[in-house]
Amino acid sequence: MQLPILSILERGKIQAGERGLRLLAKQAVDTLEKGLIELVTNADESYYRLEKKGEVVSGKIEVSIDRHTRTKPTVVEVMDYAEGMDSDDMKECVAKYGEDTSHGGGRGVFGMGLKDALIAFGGGEVISFKHGKRWQCSVAANGD
After folding, report:
1. Distances (CA, A) of 126 to 2, 11, 75, 87, 139
2. What is the CATH number of domain 18-140?
């Protein structure tokens, strides 16, 4: 008896579920301090990339924390005056997971930090200015 030939599956992408994203985020960014370190490091690396190009930068990174109360969530803001991100940059850095998004200038070889911080914090927004325009994206606690 001859066995049937099995078809070979096409190469596809593994889809991360909502639970998996939250678990990965909580493992990487399990405290407010780790989330802050990630966001400040991202800002610092952006300045570093500009300096490597010979640009003079302020290096200013502003951190603001509005601690939660019974009626409102904690708000964490990290602001810099470095490269900024446009729509394509945001798609690259926020929509991809597990790939190098540091553009050759930092620790971001796994492409997880910013997304992990936003998901672990229960969601958040990235607001950026580049090319004279304001760009914004939101990430929900479930990674959407």
Report:
1. 59, 33, 13, 11, 8
2. 3.30.565
